Model the fold of this input.
Amino acid sequence: MRFKRDLIVWHWVGVVVILALTSLWHFAYSWAPNVVSAAIFPVNQSAWENVKLFLFPSILFYIVEYIGIGRKFRNYLFAHGLTLIIMPALMLALFYFYRTGIGLEPNLIADMIVIFISICIGLYIGYRITVYKRKVGSPAIAIIIALVLAAGYAFLTFKPLEKPLFLDPNTNGYGIEGYDDSSYGTEYTPHRTVRPTPSQ
Done:
């Protein structure tokens, strides 16, 4: 029982830490624009690129939490591997709900609320699975999830689908081509492919 209470405290700290890290993650690419950072950090303002905010910040916190208390629970790794899918999925659902369903204009406050809610719900689900009495899943699944997501995010940054999910509404670009270096005051300009204009 004591370990469960301790895990709750850790998770509340996690909400703050992950939220803070996602805020830094949002701007990190502009500080060090290169191929490696493009695979890790969001490179534009598309909905898809923003799901990167949850992967590495969460993993960094989970490593610390696992050392601190998570190793006392046999379901910890599997449960928190699932949150790496749950949190971005929630963010996308809430993102489209407030922008398309309700029709609100995109704004930073609404986006931060969406991220906060996604983190809270994700960690709550992670907690419930972690403290479940029976063993569920496998730690290997958590590792596979993290690796597949990291590879998928990197691939779709450089080879994005030309769908609304991947479109930066500010630059009308996809993936790394949607990065607007002038807005960050940097001199780095990724290669952009000029798409032919349809003939009239």
